[in-house]
Design goal:
125 residues
Length: 125
């Protein structure tokens, strides 16, 4: 229930942002993730707050209106989970190489036209 509230809150917040606000939020979340790579906590219990949260926010921020609706309604939750997981793996891979995140998989996914994937690839891989 808590997760659903968070998704709904984030989606309404993100939907109502102007282009300038959206760009500023995108920069903030990327900066937060880069900050974690440089000097964030290496405590596995804190990864949720320091990596998963900004990645989840980026997923919703960069999704289309249709995608946001599908993510919130859980009709395409697999895609949401994939995008958030890809973001997390790409960021964490900068600190701890991820054995389930091979280069050939990264290259294949980075060819996608999805804005979030393109952004994650350019910033973290």
């Amino acid at each position: 229930m808590k997760k659903l509230f968070l998704y709904v809150f984030l989606s309404f917040f993100v939907i109502s942002c102007s282009d300038n606000q959206t760009a500023q939020l995108e920069k903030k979340y990327i900066k937060d993730l880069k900050s974690w790579i440089k000097n964030g906590s290496r405590d596995a219990n804190k990864i949720k707050d320091e990596v998963q949260t900004p990645c989840s926010k980026l997923v919703m921020l960069m999704a289309t209106k249709k995608e946001k609706a599908a993510f919130i309604a859980h009709t395409d939750i697999e895609e949401y989970d994939f995008r958030a997981g890809f973001c997390m793996s790409a960021v964490i891979n900068n600190v701890w190489p991820q054995p389930n995140f091979p280069k050939d998989f990264q290259k294949k996914v980075c060819r996608e036209k999805i804005p979030l994937i393109k952004k994650v690839c350019s910033e973290f891989l």
